[in-house]
Amino acid sequence: MRRARSESSNLLSYMFQEENPVKINLRDYSPEDWTTLKHIILNAENFGEVFLESEKLKIMVFTAHPEFGRVLVAEDTENKQILGYASVMIEWKALVITSIITRHESLRRGVGRSLIQGIKDLAQLLPLIDVIRVDTGDFMDYAQEFYKSCGFLSVGLIPHYMSWHNNQVFFVYPVEKRMVSNENGAEGEI
Questions:
Q1: How far apart are CA 190 and CA 84, in angstroms?
Q2: Structural domains of the chain ordered from first start
Q3: How many Cβ atoms from other residues are within 10 Å of residue 76's Cβ?
Q4: For the segment 18-44, what is each residue's pLDDT rounded down to a tens digit?
Q5: pTM of the prediction?
Q6: Beta bridge partners of 113
Q7: Which segments of the chain are extended strands (E)?
């Protein structure tokens, strides 16, 4: 995957290109995106109607209060079609991935991996973030393999988490801060 920072005023506006020729732009959510995201949620495996209201509330809160979280949207650069999105909650020293959902027809085209890279880049911009966390159901083998392939480490399992009828597997990705120099030559972490 190749990544290039765009000249957009958006802090996280990247273009990604996988082997499959889908070019992806990551950007922040805007209210005009809701109709498309609603369609994606309703048609996503293991999501659907039961998650719609909680996803809508999360998106509204994170959009109104970016100090609590962010919503990143992945769109095809050529036709501007939204291919998926991810939401992250900012907690003490951690970014917690609360959702990562792609269009079914966009699976295995680099959309999820692009969203994960955008989350990793966001973590670099937030000085107090040391780790990215995510969890998934133990029955979702494909999600577990996906997170592992993105560099996440499995750190535990909680049986019957939140009274759901499944176990949740937890993953972390340690955020390595980069050293940078300012215009005066002083070094610091980002």
A1: 28
A2: 2-130+175-189 (3.40.630.30)
A3: 16
A4: 445 578 999 999 999 999 999 999 988
A5: 0.80
A6: none
A7: 2-5, 14-17, 23-28, 69-76, 82-91, 94-102, 131-137, 153-158, 168-174, 179-181, 187-189
